[in-house]
Design a protein that fits this description.
The protein is of the alpha/beta class. It has one domain: NAD(P)-binding Rossmann-like Domain (Rossmann fold). It contains eight helices and seven strands. It has helices at 15-23, 53-60, 78-101, 146-165, 186-189, 193-205, 228-232, 245-252, and strands spanning 6-10, 30-35, 46-47, 65-68, 112-118, 168-174, 211-216. It has a seven-stranded parallel beta sheet with strand order 3-2-1-4-5-6-7, with helices on both faces. Strand 1, helix 1 and strand 2 (30-35) form a beta-alpha-beta unit. Helix 1 packs across helix 6 and helix 2 packs across helix 3. The protein binds 1,4-dihydronicotinamide adenine dinucleotide (NAI) and D-galactaro-1,5-lactone.
């Protein structure tokens, strides 16, 4: 597969999108930006909702690959998650399928999507305690929220579009990608922005990924999950959250085995008041 050059970045106005807009061009990608929120200082950015199928068709025209970050990134009422994360991701895959199966498209037959899944797809999984093995990538799905459920849908949609249409996806179950970890839990699940860009680059360029699911984090000393699927793509993490441990533990204390917010991978997502319909 030739290395992709033109890459559509959905969710480009968000936290992770902003970080990746800064980092990915150094790998040689020409980014096309898409978000419902306008992006200041980016005149070519497409401002549109994932519900707008015509805008998506335009957005994918001529792209070699897509990094799909757009969507609701926290728990929300089901109707909102349904529209943005479930229907929105479906709309994007349909636009990509149409584009990449068109005979006259320069990108025909070589499209790839990197899907921003989340640790909350498996958020109810108990976190490993000292001496426990790392959580494997094939651990059963245990979403902790409607949000996590939408990430399970995205992973299954990716599998379907690979099996039926030959569209490759790497679904990255991202831990917490921020400039710095801000909680003791994040010491285990943090992905530095630099490692995020390294992982996305590996996901865009690895040969023959079919549909691959990988955890996304740095090589943290307190890591909870198995990064070998990500490393098999060529990902070589260079950061470790341990440099932040002393300060965070001094401020917040160690994880408390009796605190339900500390018991499972998803942290406080697991115990947040559920957003059930009223
Ligand atoms: P964010 O909330 O900062 O950004 C999401 C972006 O998507 C926003 O700019 C928003 O305007 C856009 N968006 C939302 N609904 C849309 C729609 N219907 N149409 C078009 N654009 C829409 O989230 P963040 O942190 O940047 O995360 C990006 C992606 O990565 C999300 O899918 C999130 O679920 C996933 N993720 C992020 C993690 C993190 O640590 N930042 C961890 C795990 C997953
Ligand atoms: C996510 O999926 C969220 O999008 C992000 O905002 C963080 O909360 C992250 O998970 C996390 O688990 O820390």
């Amino acid at each position: 597969m030739p290395a992709p050059r033109i890459v559509l970045l959905t969710g480009a106005a968000g936290g992770l999108g902003t970080l990746m807009r800064g980092l990915l061009p150094a790998y040689g990608y020409e980014l096309r930006l898409f978000d419902m929120t306008p992006i200041e200082g980016a005149p070519g950015a497409i401002t549109a909702d994932l519900a707008d199928k015509e805008a998506l068709r335009e957005a994918v025209r001529g792209v070699d690959a897509i990094i799909h970050l757009a969507g609701i990134s926290l728990e929300a009422p089901f109707e909102k998650i349904l529209r943005a994360n479930i229907e929105g991701t479906y709309n994007l895959y349909e636009a990509a399928r149409e584009e990449w199966s068109a005979g006259d498209s320069p990108a025909a037959g070589r499209g790839r999507i990197v899907f921003a899944s989340s640790n909350h797809a498996v958020g109810f999984t108990p976190r490993p305690r000292e001496g426990d093995p790392l959580i494997p990538i094939d651990t059963p799905r245990r979403p902790d929220t409607y949000y996590g459920l939408s990430k399970c849908f995205g992973e299954d949609l990716a599998q379907l579009y690979w099996d039926r249409h030959g569209i490759e996806t790497v679904s990255v179950r991202i831990g917490s990608c921020f400039l710095e970890p801000t909680s003791v839990r994040m010491l285990s699940v943090w992905m530095s922005p630099g490692d995020g860009a390294r992982l996305f680059h590996a996901a865009l360029t690895a040969e023959g990924v079919g549909h691959t699911v990988a955890y996304g984090s740095s090589a943290n000393t307190r890591l909870w999950w198995d990064l070998s699927t990500a490393c098999a793509l060529g990902y070589e993490p260079q950061d470790d959250s341990e440099q932040f441990a002393e300060k965070l533990i001094a401020a917040q204390g160690e994880l408390d085995p009796d605190n339900p917010d500390h018991a499972r991978l998803g942290g406080h997502f697991v115990t947040n008041p559920p957003m059930w319909p009223h």
